[in-house]
Design a protein that fits this description.
This protein is of the alpha+beta class. It has a domain of 72 residues. Helix content is 30%, strand content 22%. The chain has three helices and four strands; from the N terminus they run H-H-E-E-E-H-E. A four-stranded mixed beta sheet has the order 1-2-3-4, with helices on one face. Helix 2 packs across helix 3. The longest helix is centred in the last third of the chain and has 18 residues. The chain starts with 20 loop residues before the first helix and ends in a 10-residue tail after the last strand.
């Protein structure tokens, strides 16, 4: 019997997983905020390794510092709650520009 040559299995494709409708609905305040004039930024800010900031053209609604044991999803959920608090009650959360962070 002759042996058959096999085609190598192609490597699995890599890529970003796209958010489904249920993912977006888990962050309702951010969803609402981003459909208007809002924007969010996530990344390094000065000496802070990871922060999440939500602002519109007039105000910074929330500025959060990622905790050492916090996942990105948890940070986004906290940002969602902070944005909701700002939109509903005009209570703005700022963990970056606090006296405790002045020495960072």
């Amino acid at each position: 019997m002759a042996s058959r040559s096999r085609k190598p299995t192609p490597p699995a494709t890599r890529g970003l997983r796209t958010a489904s409708a249920t993912d977006a609905s888990s962050l309702p305040a951010l969803e609402q905020f981003l459909t208007g004039e809002g924007q969010i930024s996530i990344g390094t800010i000065g000496p802070i390794a990871c922060a999440a900031v939500a602002n519109d053209q007039h105000n910074m609604l929330a500025a959060l510092v990622r905790r050492s044991d916090e996942t990105l999803q948890q940070l986004l959920e906290r940002l969602d709650r902070a944005v909701q608090l700002a939109l509903d009650d005009e209570i703005f959360t700022d963990e970056i520009n606090t006296p405790n962070n002045a020495s960072r």
